[in-house]
Amino acid sequence: MNSIGDILDEKDVDWTVCEQTGLHFINSQDYNEELLTDISTMSKIPMNSLDYGTFVVICPQAKAQHAAGLMKSLGYSLQPKVAAQPIINRPKFKGDLVSEVADSLNSEKLFQQFGKAMRVLGEQLGIGPLQDRLKKRGITWKMGDDNDSLVFYVNNDVTGDLQPVARISKESLNSQHDFQEQLTNVLDFAMGNSPGTFKQQQEKIRNQQQMVQDISKVVFPNDKSSQVASLMLS
Fold first, then answer.
1. Which one, of 172, 165, 138, lies nearest residue 151 by Cα?
2. Cβ neighbours of residue 179 closer than 8 Å, sequence gap 6 or more
3. Cβ distance 114 to 168 under 8 Å?
4. Are 37 and 151 in contact (CB under 8 A)?
5. What is the 3-state secondary structure (H, E, C) of 121-139?
6. How many angstroms separate the CA atoms of 120 and 167, rounded?
7. Secondary structure of the chain: what % helix, strand, coil (to 5)?
8. Which residue has the higher pLDDT, 73 or 174?
9. Is 80 exceeded by the pLDDT of residue 150?
10. Rounded to an integer, what distance in angstroms lies between the CA atom of residue 68 and that of residue 74?
11. Three-state DSSP class for 141?
12. Least confident of 3-7, 70-74, 135-139, 173-177
């Protein structure tokens, strides 16, 4: 499990730790939702951010309320939420409109298939659609602004804002292997586990099965390698 500082170093983001609180600070100009999502994914812990204008505090979601209290005791106030502004003088599209629309439709179909896979997998496992499991854990999702990613959010208990904790891009679903990888990650997420837990459990089961098979071969050898093993153990 990577620490917040390690991940920020990997992302080449300058940071510091407040001596009084032990919280991680970054410049507000270096912050965006994609960074918060990456920290959540890489640390395997849902993260939240607290905006103080010139700097942003990054901390685990479960500790956000406590962190806000510490900052308040030091005289810092959270920035008020800014209402979304209407887009004025939207630039005209200059590319290939047909290709743009086709790509958008392909993305939409791909994410629809992923949503269906989430429902079917949960039903086959007897736990119900993964969407329902996510909702029970307070996790919502929506398409990213670029329509090329599915972003998962939790509610920030301090600010009331939605904070991203995971992201699935269109590129990460391009092959059967990648699709399967992302589906198992969402399964882990829905079950309250860190990404990769299901894969580790499957690997453990395979190792146990192999161990049982190897031991059985020693007792009932059916090939040369097993016969040698049986002789060595006699």
1. 165
2. 114, 117, 173
3. yes
4. yes
5. HHHHCCCCCHHHHHHHCCE
6. 21
7. 50, 15, 30
8. 73
9. yes
10. 10
11. strand
12. 173-177
For the entire predicted model, the pTM comes to: 0.49
* Amino acid symbol at 136: K
Task: Using the structure block, give the residue that is written with the tokens 């990613």.
Answer: 149
Q: Which residues of 96-123 are buried (b: 16+ CB within 10 A; e: fewer)?
A: eeeeeeeeeeebeebbeebeebbeebbe
What residues does each domain of the chain span?
4-73, 99-195, 199-229
Contacts of 39 (CB under 8 A, 6+ apart): 4, 7, 8, 47, 58
CA distance 105 to 117: 18
Tokens matching residue 10: 């990997």
**DSSP helix/strand/coil, 225:** helix
